[in-house]
């Protein structure tokens, strides 16, 4: 069967980097499976409980980079109680014991401890890259270990983590000999940092491309840092609350003008508008702009900046930009691929800053748009139909109408037709979040047309089990389905148990599934972990045990796994 | 639950299985207020005006149609972002002095200590000094004759005209100040004084 020596095949495999493609080629034949497993460099595990460290090491003995994800997505919205799981410690322990030459670790929604970080920093001589996204459980002491012990560290990228800031000297723990940094992102830290240590670190890191500061780094320091690192490509600015004297501003402007490689700007927590204008000289080259934390800057100042950003590909912004602002984006940013519009007012009410008009304007003006996250107060079917016509290339479409069950504000109809148009037109749609008033009909459309859909988020939608069934039966590529506050119950849950083997996970909270239904599912599908999260009703659930549980389950999370029930579940998690 | 008088009962969240009659469905409905009451302990990380402060909010929900019900984990904004957008609420230290002051046309924000003023006259003087020109403070005392109006955001998030309520009540509830051109103020959505206009 194989006419080429293994080395040649391996060389060919080197060009295949996507983990999905590598998974596919490993299924071709035993020989390819073997060659592939020894040559896999980057391993991606989307659910840390789907497998175990031992199985990972057995299959891929030579990998260099590991990506692990822990908690389900809805944990971002406080729906998963503290202590649920997602601990990285056992993974690091197992890898440390093995002979794996780990160079990169990327974690998302996992619990990381200082102990884990210390162990990590001491166990892998060539460790280069640590990326932590939405993790928790560690402090700046853990960061100090990484800084001190990882001699060849290139990336320390902390995104939106919950870190206990001891306001210590972790930055000073980078040895004077450390000159390899490429990425330093500590924007999510709350406390003051040692500015002198920071400046010296930046000054001795000629390869530094990405620097994202936290809110306590003042303007004067920023100017000095940028002067030390004119090669910077991505900059995350801190916060500037007070009025700045003109001298600081001038120095900042001078430094900015030298940063000719600057392509990405972010940060700006509590920033005053004037510091935005200091960045105008670099706007024409910017490809990524994140102003979604800049609550203090009003729409007109945002617009004045964006008017100059003709090459923007990615824009994250607050809804204070308004429909008018989005029209400016639509006419200026012809290269725009990804747009996220976040709500300023999390509690609804107040002025409706962006409406369906803004969304339509963007869809009409930005031909390359493929990803959108849009929070707004109102929507119409007509607008969605227009958007679908304008933009058939959406890969990700997430619309969040702030008020649950809100109908089309002009016709008072459900938004079924609007979303139906989206899924029908966007043949490559992989991710969808729906909102507003929706009946089973929208799910009929999704099941019929969304053939490439991999992730679907449903909240306050649907009428009967039929809705969920349309999706489960229709969307052959579904991987992650997450549902909250919708009237889907046991009939839908149990209709096709084998479907869950093709999916990563299913989340259902505040729906109509019962304990009895979940137990039946667990019986039929031993290769699934069926978890019930029950914070309040521990005792009540026990009593109902004999009586075939018509007890409603508050939170259900199920996922396929090859390693059975996990052993680290807290008492409020029942694995059936 | 909504305005308009439309027959939206049909479209309300129905958690019963199909085939049950309507009244049973209504009883089974888990209203948003119920959700607030049963919110889990893990939500204590949310900002203070989030779902945990259930007692006050439940009453508000029933009285004020404009006030939005607060549901656990809704809107779906991640907790990191919530914390950072709520920063403003926590740092303005209601009643304890420092509030942010913005003025239309001026590109920077100032912060001032309300506690260092004794009354509206003091505040007027302080505001004038803060922005370096005369005439702002006048609005507080002589409301109708001035180019600017001074408005403030209170604890409930409503914008009120400065100078109406007794000083003590004002500094307790003022979260931030804004000096707005009179011409822009009409139609802004100020809460009505309740007295003469």
Q: Descriptors for this entry?
A:
heterodimer; A: 576 residues; alpha/beta; 21-stranded mixed sheet; two-stranded parallel sheet; 23 strands; 33% helix; B: 197 residues; alpha+beta; 5-stranded mixed sheet; 9 helices; 31% helix; 13% strand; disordered N terminus
Q: Can you offer a commentary on this structure?
A:
Chain B: It holds the Pfam family AUX_IAA. Chain B: Aux/IAA proteins are short-lived transcriptional factors that function as repressors of early auxin response genes at low auxin concentrations. Chain B: Belongs to the Aux/IAA family. By secondary structure, chain A is an alpha/beta fold. Chain A is built from 21 helices and 23 strands. In chain A, the strands form two sheets. Chain A has a 21-stranded mixed sheet, covered by helices on one side. In chain A, strands 5-7 form a two-stranded parallel ribbon. In chain A, helix 1 (6-13) packs across helix 3, helix 13 (322-332) packs parallel to helix 14 (356-365) and helix 16 (416-425) runs parallel beside helix 17 (440-449). The longest helix of chain A has 13 residues, at 246-258. Chain B has 197 residues and is α+β, with helices and mostly antiparallel strands. Chain B is 31% helix and 13% strand. Chain B contains nine helices and five strands. Chain B has helices at residues 22-28, 32-37, 54-63, 79-85, 87-91, 120-131, 138-141, 167-173, 182-185, and strands at 98-103, 110-113, 148-153, 159-161, 176-181. A five-stranded mixed sheet of chain B has the order 2-1-5-3-4. The two termini of chain B are 33 Å apart. In chain B, 24% of the residues are buried. Mean pLDDT of chain B is 62; it is low at 1-8, 19-68 and 88-96. Classes of the chains: A alpha/beta (576), B alpha+beta (197). At the A-B interface, helix 11 of A face helix 4 of B.
């Amino acid at each position: 069967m194989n006419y080429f020596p293994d080395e040649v095949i391996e060389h060919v495999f080197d060009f295949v980097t996507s983990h999905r493609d590598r998974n596919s080629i490993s299924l071709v034949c035993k020989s390819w499976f073997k060659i592939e497993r020894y040559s896999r460099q980057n391993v991606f595990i989307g659910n840390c409980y789907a497998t175990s460290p031992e199985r990972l090491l057995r299959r891929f003995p030579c990998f260099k980079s590991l990506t692990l994800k822990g908690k389900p997505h809805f944990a971002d919205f406080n729906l998963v109680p503290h202590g649920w799981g997602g601990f990285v410690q056992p993974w690091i322990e197992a890898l440390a014991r093995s002979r794996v030459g780990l160079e990169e670790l990327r974690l998302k929604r996992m619990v990381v401890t200082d102990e884990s970080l210390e162990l990590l920093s001491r166990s892998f001589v060539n460790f280069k890259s640590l990326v932590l996204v939405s993790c928790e459980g560690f402090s700046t002491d853990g960061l100090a270990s990484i800084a001190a012990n990882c001699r060849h560290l290139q990336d320390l990228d902390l995104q939106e983590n919950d870190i206990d800031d001891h306001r210590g000297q972790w930055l000073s723990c980078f040895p004077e000999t450390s000159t390899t940094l490429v990425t330093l992102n500590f924007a999510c830290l709350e406390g003051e940092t040692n500015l002198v240590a920071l400046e010296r670190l930046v000054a001795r890191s000629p390869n530094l491309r990405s620097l994202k500061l936290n809110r306590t780094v003042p303007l004067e320091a920023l100017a000095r840092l940028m002067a030390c690192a004119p090669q910077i490509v991505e900059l995350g600015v801190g916060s500037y609350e007070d009025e700045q004297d003109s001298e600081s501003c001038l120095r900042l402007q001078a430094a900015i003008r030298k940063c000719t490689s600057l392509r990405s700007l972010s940060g700006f927590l509590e920033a005053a508008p004037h510091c935005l204008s200091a960045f105008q000289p670099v706007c024409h080259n910017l490809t990524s702009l994140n102003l979604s934390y800049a609550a203090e800057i009003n729409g007109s100042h945002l617009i004045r900046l964006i008017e100059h950003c003709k090459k923007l590909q990615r824009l994250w912004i607050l809804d204070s930009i308004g429909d008018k602002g989005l029209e400016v984006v639509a006419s200026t940013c012809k290269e725009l691929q990804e747009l996220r519009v976040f709500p300023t007012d999390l509690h609804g009410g107040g002025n409706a800053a962006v409406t369906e008009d803004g969304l339509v304007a963007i869809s009409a003006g930005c031909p390359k748009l493929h990803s959108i996250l849009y929070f707004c107060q109102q929507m119409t079917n007509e607008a969605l139909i227009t958007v679908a016509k304008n933009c058939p290339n959406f890969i990700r479409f997430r619309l969040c109408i702030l008020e649950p069950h809100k109908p089309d504000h002009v016709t008072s109809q459900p938004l079924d037709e609007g979303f139906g148009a989206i899924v029908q037109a966007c043949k490559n749609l992989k991710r969808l979040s729906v909102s507003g008033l929706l009946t089973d009909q929208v799910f009929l459309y999704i099941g019929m047309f969304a053939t490439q859909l991999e992730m679907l988020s449903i909240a306050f939608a649907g009428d009967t089990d039929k809705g969920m069934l349309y999706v489960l039966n229709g969307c052959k590529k579904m991987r992650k389905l997450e549902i909250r506050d919708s009237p889907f119950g046991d009939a839908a849950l149990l209709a096709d148990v084998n479907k869950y083997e093709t999916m990563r996970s299913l989340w259902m909270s505040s729906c109509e599934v019962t304990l009895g239904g979940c137990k039946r599912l667990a019986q039929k599908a031993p290769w699934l972990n069926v978890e019930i999260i029950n914070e309040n009703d521990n005792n009540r659930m026990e009593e109902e045990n004999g009586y075939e549980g018509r007890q409603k389950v508050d939170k259900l999370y199920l996922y396929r796994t090859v390693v059975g029930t996990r052993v680290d579940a807290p008492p409020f998690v029942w694995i059936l | 639950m909504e305005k308009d008088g439309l027959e939206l009962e049909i479209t309300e969240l129905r958690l019963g299985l199909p085939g049950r009659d309507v009244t049973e469905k209504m009883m089974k409905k888990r209203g948003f207020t119920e959700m607030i009451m049963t919110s889990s302990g893990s939500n204590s990380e949310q900002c203070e005006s989030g779902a945990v402060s259930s007692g006050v909010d439940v009453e508000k929900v029933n009285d004020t149609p404009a006030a939005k019900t607060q549901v656990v984990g809704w809107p779906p904004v991640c907790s990191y972002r919530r914390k950072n957008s709520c920063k403003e609420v926590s740092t303005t230290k209601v009643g304890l002095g420092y509030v942010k002051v913005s003025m239309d046309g001026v590109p920077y924000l100032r912060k001032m200590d309300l506690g260092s003023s004794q009354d509206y006259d003091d505040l007027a003087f302080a505001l004038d000094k803060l922005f370096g020109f005369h005439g702002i403070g006048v609005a507080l005392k002589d409301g109708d004759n001035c180019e600017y109006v001074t408005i403030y955001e209170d604890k409930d998030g409503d914008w009120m005209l400065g100078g109406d309520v007794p000083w003590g009540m004002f500094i307790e509830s003022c979260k931030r100040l804004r000096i707005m051109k009179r011409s822009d103020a009409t139609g802004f959505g100020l809460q009505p004084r309740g007295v003469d206009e």
